[in-house]
Amino acid sequence: MKEKKSRSGAQKVLVIDDEADVAYSFQRVLAEEPVEVVGVTSGVEGLKQLRKQKVDIVLLDVRIGEEDGLEIFRQLRKEHPRQLVIVMTAHGTAQTAIEAMKLGAFDYILKPFDVPELLATLRRGLQTAASMQELVAGEGKKATAEIGAAPGLIGTSPAMQKIYKLVGQVARSDAAVLLLGESGTGKELVARAIYANSLRAARPYVAINCAAIPDTLLESELFGHERGAFTGALTQRIGKFERADGGTIFLDEIGDMPLGLQAKLLRVLQNGEFQRLGGDQTLRTQVRVIAATNKDLSAMVREKSFREDLYYRINVVQIQLPPLRERSADVLPLAEHFLLRSSKERVLIFSAATRKVMQAYGWPGNVRELENAVTRAVVCASSEAIEPGDLPPEVAGQIVPSALSRGGDWWEQIRGEAGVAGDLLAAGEKMLVERALGEADGNVKRAAEILGVTRAALRTRVTRYALSAND
Questions:
Q1: pLDDT in tens, the chain (471 residues)
Q2: What is the pTM of this model?
Q3: Together in a domain, 204 and 277
Q4: Do 307 and 182 reside in the same domain of the chain?
Q5: Which among 238, 266, 316, 347 is least surrounded, fewest beta carbons within 10 Å?
Q6: Do residue 177 and residue 289 come from a single domain?
Q7: What is the total count of domains within the chain?
Q8: For position 347, which CATH number holds?
Q9: Is residue 329, in this structure, part of any structural domain at all?
Q10: 141 in a domain, yes or no?
């Protein structure tokens, strides 16, 4: 094991990784920094090192040979509750990232390392250690709970890694969370992941869609009603807040809640008190609130259509979910997940052409649209391989039909262009893009409108086929 010679006043970094070269790589990366790097190749040896000497930062791999790095992390946290830890992994799953942050990791980084990002993270960590800020779990707050399920949270893109970190961080508290993002981005899945990994996981989880219930009935759904409170109220009804007492309530599409009801909701959030509709008894509830919306609440506050005081009450921690088009690397893993779930009685695969189509499409309906597209493809598939034609027309249509029919000899031109390679799909797509760009004088926006695709999707094809275009 190679170690850097000790420097006077140098901060110490302990690397726990079963590959000795990783510690050596850190020594090279940090060669110009006032840092001493020590490397060990087992979790047991790492714990021994921590018992013998003070370390500023521990860099811990989640897989250390046969050892579970997160189990080592739990033991480390018990023995050294203030130790600053950065978790490393080559497999960035939601469960790993969330639990690492739940256990109090300072950060979570992926292999292979992006050197500038790695240096920035280490410098932040070293500065934190030097200034004695407690960014890890304090004594008496030992995280021993096992990771809860995070169903549906799939993806290894940088955008999703940030979401996993935030979920792990906010799960440790009871702070209100506001989830923002376009429809179909998975806001409810994130809400459930926060709940499943929280201290309230054994208590009720109650969800309500504020946009799906008429305004006249929403108050009753939230707070309940007494018998005879209104026409049709034949029995007493227990509301969502009462049912969620001690647990978590998820208020989906909170931007659609009427102003009058917002005032009553604010009272519950401020002092935990409410009355059933038609009743005079003041009831109390203690819940954690997670809210979500696809609307711009800050703009609604300016327009006086959403209460400012309520906005700040629910917006303690904000998590912005990225649209699927901004994490295209996650499209195929998500599609494979939905395929496995939808084709339980058949063994199906996506053809190479279908994978290209799905990767290139803009998915304006986000993850929900992708799931529906895969479900339809499973139903329509006539063989073991799902072809582009099995996908919904708006997905598969990005490359073919309507525009192809405009030129009488296009079909033969495409066949000739495809040549012996037989890549009819790529040949047709390239000629379509060339023709649209020609009609739009090279303007990407106008060409995208002609083809009925997003500008981002068209730019991908322009780059792929080395075509000339301008914005």
A1: 344 444 556 789 999 999 888 888 888 888 888 889 999 999 999 999 999 998 989 999 988 988 899 999 999 988 887 788 999 988 767 778 888 888 888 888 888 888 888 888 888 888 777 753 332 323 323 222 222 334 457 888 888 888 998 998 998 899 999 999 999 999 999 999 999 888 898 888 999 999 988 888 899 889 988 888 787 777 888 889 988 999 999 999 999 999 989 999 999 999 999 988 888 888 999 999 999 999 999 999 999 999 999 999 999 999 999 999 999 889 998 999 899 888 766 678 898 889 989 998 989 999 999 999 999 998 888 778 888 888 988 888 644 333 333 334 444 454 455 443 445 455 566 777 887 788 788 888 888 777 766 777 778 778 878 888 886
A2: 0.61
A3: yes
A4: yes
A5: 347
A6: yes
A7: 4
A8: 1.10.8.60
A9: yes
A10: no
Whether residue 298 sits in one domain with residue 206: yes
Domain coverage including residue 295: 173-320
Going by C-alpha positions, the residue among 126, 124, 82 that lies closest to residue 104 is 82
Please indicate, yes or no, if residue 293 is contained in any of the structural domains. yes
Q: Are residues 204 and 122 in the same domain?
A: no
